[in-house]
Amino acid sequence: MNSISLLGRNLARTALRTQAPSTTTTQCARSLPRNFFRRSMQTRPQPNQQQTRMPTQEDLRAQFKNKNRNTLYYTLSIILGTVALSYGSVPFYKMICQQMGWGGQPISIHSGQYEEDDIASRLIPITDSRRLRITFAGSTSDVLPWKFTPQQREVRVLPGETALAFYTATNLSKEEDIIGVATYSVTPGQVAPYFSKIQCFCFEEQRLNKGETVDMPVFFYIDPEFLRDPNMSKIDTITLNYTFFKAKYDKDGHLSPVA
C-alpha cells in the first residue's frame, strides 16, 4: 500500500509539472494576439473625416452662389470694357483719320504733320493747273433742332490756293440753349489726304442760345501734291460735308453726342 501511494504521489507530481508549462504556454499564446491587435489598432491610420464628409445643402448653395458671383463680375467687366472702348475709339479713330486722311477725313495743317516752312511752300497756287470745283453740304441729326446750311454752293480753287467758306447754323428751339458738335468728310474719299484745313469749327463745342444764328467759317486749301497723284487725274469735283449732332456733358464732364 505504501508503495502504491508513493507511486500515486509521483504520478500526480509529474502530471502537475507537465501541466504547468502547458498552461503558461496557453496563456502566453492567448496574450500575444491581444497585444498584437491592440498595437495594430493604435498604429492604424485614422480616416480623414473632412475627406469622407459628404457636402451639405448649404455647402452646395454656397458654391453655387460663388459661381454666379464670379460669372456676374466677368460679365460686368466685359460690358464696362466694351462701353469704355466704344467711347474712347471714336475720338481716337477721328484723330488717326485726321493725321492720315483716312475715311474721307481732311488733314489739318495744325496736326504737326508739316513743318512751318513746308506749309508755306504748299500755300503757293499752281497757276498753270486746272481749277477744282469744291461743293458744300450740311445736315443735322434727327434729335438736333437746328438749321444748318452752307452759305455758298461751290467755289473753284487752284491747288495750293487758300479758300474761305461759311456755314450758317440756327437754333430753332425757343425753350433751351443747345450744344452741337460737327463731324465732316470729303468725297471722293481718296482726295482726303490732299484736303487740308487751316481753320474749322468741327469737333468743337458749338453752343447756340435759343433762337440764335451764327456763321461758322472754314479755311482750307488743296495740297499741290494732288496734281502729282495719277489717281487724282480724273477728279475735278470735291464735296465737303458737315453734320451736326446734339451733344451734352455727362456726369464726368465729358462732351458726348446724344443719340
From TrEMBL:
<dbReference type="InterPro" id="IPR023471">
    <property type="entry name" value="CtaG/Cox11_dom_sf"/>
</dbReference>
<feature type="transmembrane region" description="Helical">
    <location>
        <begin position="71"/>
        <end position="90"/>
    </location>
</feature>
<dbReference type="InterPro" id="IPR007533">
    <property type="entry name" value="Cyt_c_oxidase_assmbl_CtaG"/>
</dbReference>
<keyword id="KW-1133">Transmembrane helix</keyword>
<dbReference type="GO" id="GO:0005759">
    <property type="term" value="C:mitochondrial matrix"/>
</dbReference>
<dbReference type="Pfam" id="PF04442">
    <property type="entry name" value="CtaG_Cox11"/>
</dbReference>
<dbReference type="GO" id="GO:0005507">
    <property type="term" value="F:copper ion binding"/>
</dbReference>
<keyword id="KW-0812">Transmembrane</keyword>
<protein>
    <recommendedName>
        <fullName>Cytochrome c oxidase assembly protein CtaG/Cox11</fullName>
    </recommendedName>
</protein>
<keyword id="KW-0472">Membrane</keyword>
<dbReference type="GO" id="GO:0005743">
    <property type="term" value="C:mitochondrial inner membrane"/>
</dbReference>
<comment type="function">
    <text>Exerts its effect at some terminal stage of cytochrome c oxidase synthesis, probably by being involved in the insertion of the copper B into subunit I.</text>
</comment>
